[in-house]
Design goal:
alpha/beta, Nucleotidyltransferase, domain 5, 5-stranded mixed β-sheet, elongated, 160 residues
């Protein structure tokens, strides 16, 4: 005989789930943001700005003695070509790839000019003549090459 209060017959009913407002799980979004931040931190290249390049203008020679090591005369043309002008007004094309920002040939010539100046116990001096229509980025590339060669005495000539 069964008792009146049989456990099988009197089950407690669980309450119906209440409707929750829909939510948005943003934990994966935060992970993606951190991954993007790390990616850009790792891949960003630090480039010196023009303000960080240390350069000084040469002073006139106070002793009046002739300078043994003449300055290296650079010409930056409108099309991006970089040439070296000699005293005899001969022009030697050094860099012609206007898309190259590294300027490897110019960097080698600047290092040679610096070593010649050091051998004669003088400072390496570079004069730059820029065509009025040349891009400013090309001038900055030349200044970066000068900074890489540790040449800080620079003179800009007026374009004629």
């Amino acid at each position: 005989m069964r008792s009146h209060k049989d456990p099988m017959t009197h089950r407690k009913r669980s309450p119906l789930p209440t409707e929750d407002s829909p939510g948005l799980d943003i934990s994966s979004l935060i992970d993606v943001c951190f991954l993007l931040l790390i990616y850009f931190l790792v891949t960003t290249q630090i480039v010196k700005k023009e303000q960080e390049l240390s350069s000084t203008l040469p002073v006139p020679n106070p002793t009046g003695t002739p300078v043994e090591n003449p300055p290296l005369n650079l010409l930056i043309e409108e099309n991006g070509n970089i040439s070296i002008r000699t005293e005899a007004k001969l022009i030697e094309l050094v860099e012609s790839d206007k898309n190259s920002r590294e300027l490897p040939t110019l960097s080698k010539r600047l290092a040679l000019h610096k070593s010649i100046a050091q051998a004669s116990k003088q400072n390496a001096v570079v004069t730059i003549k820029v065509d009025g229509s040349a891009k400013q980025q090309r001038v900055t590339d030349v200044l970066n090459a000068l900074a890489g060669a540790k040449i800080s005495e620079i003179t800009f000539l007026e374009s004629s």
